[in-house]
Protein 1
Amino acid sequence: MTSMAAQKTIFKNTFPELGSDDLSGGREEAYLSLNLPIFITYSLIAVGYVILIYTLQYYFPIIYVSIITENYWGENATFFAYLITAFLVGRLALQRGPRFRRVVWVAAALVAAFIAFEEISWGQWVHKIGPPEWLAEINKQEELNLHNIEGLTKPMMEQSVSWLLIAWSMISVATLQVRRRFDFCPMTMGLPIFPLRLLPIAFVVVWVFMARPFVKTGEIGELALAILALMWASDLYAHFSHRSTRRLACLLRMRRTAFVAAVALTALSSLAVKVYFPGALSFRLNVTAARDYPDLGLLEQSHEIFEYIFDNPRYLNDKTLSNYQRLFGTAQATGSGADNADGGD
């Protein structure tokens, strides 16, 4: 039976470009370890995210609508989270290191960048360039993206992402269990394993997509998935960047910087949208008040949104008053206005 030292020698001779840091259980060992304090922190973030969304949905519906509105807080946060993910992983791919790992990181960066720009329809609302005719004919919303083409439904994509995430989690757990026994270096071989400390966030993503507990739950799940991607990328960068050290303070600083950048960029872009594109919020306020909240029997929240619309006439449209009268006049007892509400996804 080959000794552990002999296996390391064979592996090092097979991959001579690897530095001792990767083989000695340094950066890879630190990255793949549970790291209990950070695991607890990530678990609290996961629980806090769910509590925050529930609180906003039931007690602060105006803010909640701002999160689920197209080109606004939630969608912008998702965009910047993926964009920063692509930047961090792309920078890692430019470093010297194992060829297989760099190839995987390049692929991951390209996927993250693609998802980011798909999320905002490749900036269609900014440059005002519509999709080509062939795409407009098969796109349900006539937008410059692929995720709204006919035949693809939100539940279908969300279920697919959930099962892929479950499979990725199971592969990661299995790999972590066997890596020491067989002296296997998964990160060196290019396997995009994520550590066990990220599983609480992954669980939240799967739960949101499968249980669908929120109003326009897809946007909430997409934001949670983007947060997971950003946490993975910042974690990865903190451990494998040549600029980093293995000190806890350095690792925490790198993670914090990534999230502060995402929040700041989201705030700036969302404030700009509110000023220059008020129609987006007007549409979502009316649809959520007339259809989405009533669908869940949340008429009190629906009424609060209508009152906000009436207090801010710039958000009124030609169906606002009729939808309000239908819900809170003779039709209030029915508890749902979904069939007659104006709007769509």
Note: Confidence is low (pLDDT under 50) at residues 6-25, 330-344.
Protein 2
Amino acid sequence: MAGLGAYSVYIQGDPPVYMKQNHLQLPLLLRYQAYGWGIGKDDQGKYIALILVHTDETTARENVNILRRRISETWDVDRRNMPYKEVLESEEIRTDGRALLAKLRVRIPLKWLEWINEIY
């Protein structure tokens, strides 16, 4: 998370066994071993920092594509029929070995926690 510049971090070693029901039939994220999220601020503003740690690099890379697709195609972030892509100002998603690292800049203040709960 330090590589993302996050200054407040929550890390969980036991990831959820399941994800919420997917009414749009979008692919679910592949299994990961641990996850963490936090907040950061840089010269472009505030952002959500996200890390998913996988058993191998291939799974991490596959989850980059799945996460991007879920962001571009998923709705109902705040129960007002708003797509994720309208909540986010920008996204930077990449891998570093077995880790998926993301910086997600949110347009709507305080919606990030609700969003992060939905994306998992």
Note: Confidence is low (pLDDT under 50) at residues 17-22.
Protein 3
Amino acid sequence: MDSWLPLVIALLGLTSTLLGVWMTQRVADCRDEKRQQHERQAEQERRLREDATRTFDHRRDAYLAFVEEWWRFSDAIFQAKMFHDLDPSTPHEPDHDYLDPLRNRLLAIRIYGTGQAKSKADAAFEDMRDRAFEDAGLRVGAIDDLIEQIRADLGVLTRDVG
């Protein structure tokens, strides 16, 4: 029986060594899996932040482009009507596609804007259409409402000076 004792001790040593290596590897694998999961989650959060920033930038650009275009048309229509009043022989009625550039800006708001901004931009567009084609007077209330909504959507703080 004494001849088997060294062999049993060697087998126990080998088994405990292999078991130790296996357990160490298992712990390392679990730690690595947790690290990878944390990295995936951090990457997903980073992408969400980038998407939110990109959407904010598109929204801001769409809002600004629409408002600038609206005021450009407002000035152009005012001048056309003023010249028509001074000289009735000058054409006053614009082409049917006259407001297409403003309509294109409205489309960007419909894509990137909030629901409230979409509604208010539609109202501002309709006011401009009425002014251009139906000889209605300028109603700046709709554009003012839109600008107020834009400021709220973009988080621009208003501070009354007084």
Note: The helical segments are 5-86, 100-112, 115-133, 141-154.
